[in-house]
UniProtKB/TrEMBL annotation:
Keyword terms, alphabetized: Membrane, Signal, Transmembrane, Transmembrane helix
Protein name, as recorded: G5 domain-containing protein
One Gene Ontology cellular component: outer membrane
UniProt keyword DNA damage present: no
Pfam families recorded: 3D, DUF348, G5
Transmembrane portions of the chain: 21-43
Keyword S-adenosyl-L-methionine: no
Length: 335
């Protein structure tokens, strides 16, 4: 039976080309491993940018999603905070994550305070988010264009401007005109005075219902007043029995007559012709008088029925008193 030859591997001669092929394969394997490793690194590790409330951070991360990135960087989103991409989104190379942090804002308006947590950029945006309507004349402090900061406090002043008119009566002047056609102490209205009318137009500004400014826009006289003209008597003399009597005033009176009663007068004298009973509040005691139809007299008595423009004339006899009776006459108060 034929025996097979088994060569000694250790002593076997390997051709040169076979050695070269092994080296090339090894090198090719290393290159593939390197390429795979770099590709894996590039795929796993990404460079991203985080802009958190205006602060920018550029970093490399192995996080696969936005949520993982936030956990990796210890970032927690508040209830009203916003982010520009979904938390479940896959991260990409060069991704830019923008986080807007909500800030507390207080708005004082219409007697109440509104609190809100907002990501609004400007005060105007925050006011709009709060559902507040601002009128064209309303005042907003700080300015609506200012940026919202931390713990921003806003005040809205409601401004109302209205025009009103006010009418005022214009008093008339009283003009006294002397005349010798009237007795001294007498007056007569020649022209009756009439009040005029002035109108003022105001512009009134209210802040939250309170008047802060009142401006006169226009004034006009609607109706001019009419002066009252009063004639004032200057005539102080009359002629009686060929004699000129000078007086200070004239009183139209009701004159009655009386005679002896057995009593003295109120001033303590015995009654006699020329004694005149008067109201002392109208004609003081001791005043010298001239009474038309009676003659001279002196205020020396009074009576319970003698009030105001009324006098009682004393007569020596009952017949004279009855003859006089009761009549209207003039009493001249002598100077």
């Amino acid at each position: 039976m034929k025996e097979w030859y088994i060569p000694d591997v250790k002593t076997a001669v390997i051709p040169r080309y076979k050695k070269r092929t092994g080296v090339l394969g090894l090198a090719l394997g290393l290159i593939l491993i390197l390429i795979f490793g770099v590709s894996y690194y590039i795929y796993i590790v990404k460079e991203v940018t985080i802009v958190d409330d205006g602060k920018t951070l550029v970093l490399k991360t192995k996080a696969a999603t936005v949520e993982e990135l936030l956990k990796e960087t210890n970032r927690i989103l508040g209830l009203k905070d916003t982010i520009n991409v979904p938390l479940t989104a896959k991260l990409k190379e060069g991704e830019k994550i923008v986080i807007n942090r909500a800030k507390p804002v207080k708005i004082a308006v219409d007697g109440r305070e509104i609190k809100l947590l907002t990501v609004a950029k400007t005060i105007a945006d925050a006011i709009k988010e709060a559902g507040i309507t601002v009128g064209p004349q309303d005042i907003v402090e700080p300015s609506p264009s200012e940026l919202v900061g931390i713990n921003t406090e806003v005040k809205i002043i409601r401004v109302k401007v209205e025009e009103k008119t006010q009418e005022v009566a214009l008093a008339f002047r009283t003009i006294k005109r002397p005349t010798n056609g009237l007795f001294k102490g007498r007056t007569k209205v020649l022209t009756k005075g009439k009040t005029g009318l002035a109108r003022t137009y105001y512009k009134i500004t209210y802040y939250d219902g309170k008047v802060v400014k009142k401006e006169v826009v226009k004034q006009e006289v609607v109706k001019k007043p009419v002066d009252e003209v009063i004639l004032v008597g200057t005539k102080d003399t009359v002629s009686r029995g060929g004699k000129v009597i000078r007086f200070s005033r004239v009183i139209e009176v009701v004159a009655t007559a009386y005679t002896h009663t057995g009593y003295r007068t109120a001033t303590g004298v015995y009654p006699h012709r020329g004694v005149v009973a008067v109201d002392p509040d109208v004609i003081p005691y001791g005043t010298r008088l001239y009474i038309d139809g009676y003659g001279y007299g002196t205020a020396l008595d009074t009576g319970s029925a003698i009030k105001g423009a009324r006098v009682d004339l004393f007569f020596d006899s009952y017949g004279e008193a009855i003859s006089w009776g009761r009549r209207f006459t003039r009493v001249y108060v002598l100077e």
